[in-house]
């Protein structure tokens, strides 16, 4: 009896330690986020005091005259991430759909391993490949075609018109799309595979096509996971640094053309932080970092709200 009580007390003791330890680790996350946010805010004060809210709407970036504005890198970050997701989402969906529903069994595993290997390649490798291989080919074949066929269109032609240099906003967006596809497609593939076969076989038994099964069975069953995969890809697209730095041109110029060089928040920080001299210059770069932090937070918050809404529609609580 005493031995049994001893085991019970030991179990309760270790259970209490385990509960408190996990709670501590959870609060460490909050502490780190708060510390990062506080550091960015305090370090951004010199730039915010010097330029005010106009910092976020000015395209001026001149270290000589100590005039800084974040509009160009903020615009570049949002545009390149949008291009990456416009290309990456349908391609990722197609890859996941092919692997789970259409791919022969002998090809599923090699194809899945290849996608996972793409996800593990360092971003600097993507950047070097983009600069030395993709950009020259894109300048010789891709951009002339875009100029000829899309650059002359009314209203939207200005977006696709410009010099064929190979590097630029569109090139950076395409490289980002190639980088986010392995992450997004892997998540989509995994969530597609958890759909109970009985549901799909029932639909096939009623005469549904593969597309109808995906549209009416697989996607409704996995929509929360699909949204999570898309948000994972978007998060990487917003914060990617080295690959974008190689191919975007790193120019503080605001242009409507996607073929022109530009800049992103991450590439600006990578290029200029070691050369920043003076409190205002350094603070301006940190303010860009704070802006990227806020943009990422807003994106993740919107994703969470969307997931809560989807779960509520299914009668669940997120």
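^ structure tokens above, recovered residues below v
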């Amino acid at each position: 009896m005493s031995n049994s009580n001893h085991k019970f007390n030991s179990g309760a003791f270790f259970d209490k330690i385990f509960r408190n330890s996990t709670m501590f680790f959870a609060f460490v996350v909050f502490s780190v986020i708060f510390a990062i946010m506080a550091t960015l805010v305090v370090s951004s004060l010199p730039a915010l005091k010097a330029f005010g809210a106009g910092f976020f709407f000015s395209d001026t970036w001149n270290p000589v005259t100590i005039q800084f504005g974040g509009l160009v890198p903020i615009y570049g970050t949002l545009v390149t991430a949008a291009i990456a997701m416009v290309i990456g989402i349908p391609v990722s969906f197609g890859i996941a759909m092919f692997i789970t529903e259409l791919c022969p069994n002998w090809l599923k595993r090699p194809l899945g391993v290849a996608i996972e290997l793409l996800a593990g390649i360092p971003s600097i490798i993507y950047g070097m490949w983009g600069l030395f291989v993709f950009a020259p080919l894109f300048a010789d074949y891709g951009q002339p075609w875009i100029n000829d066929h899309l650059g002359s269109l009314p209203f939207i032609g200005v977006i696709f018109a410009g010099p064929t240099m190979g590097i630029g906003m569109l090139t950076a967006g395409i490289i980002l799309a190639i980088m986010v596809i392995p992450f997004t497609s892997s998540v989509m593939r995994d969530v597609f595979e958890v759909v109970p076969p009985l549901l799909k076989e029932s639909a096939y038994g009623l005469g549904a096509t593969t597309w109808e099964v995906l549209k009416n069975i697989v996607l409704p069953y996995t929509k929360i996971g699909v949204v999570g995969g898309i948000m994972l890809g978007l998060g990487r697209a917003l914060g990617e640094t080295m690959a974008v730095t190689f191919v975007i041109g790193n120019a503080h110029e605001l242009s409507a053309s996607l073929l022109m060089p530009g800049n992103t928040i991450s590439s600006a920080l990578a290029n200029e932080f070691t050369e920043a001299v003076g409190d205002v210059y350094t603070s301006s770069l940190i303010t860009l970092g704070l802006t990227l932090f806020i943009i990422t937070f807003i994106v993740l918050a919107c994703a969470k709200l969307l997931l809560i809404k989807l779960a509520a529609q299914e009668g669940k609580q997120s």
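The radius of gyration is 24 Å.
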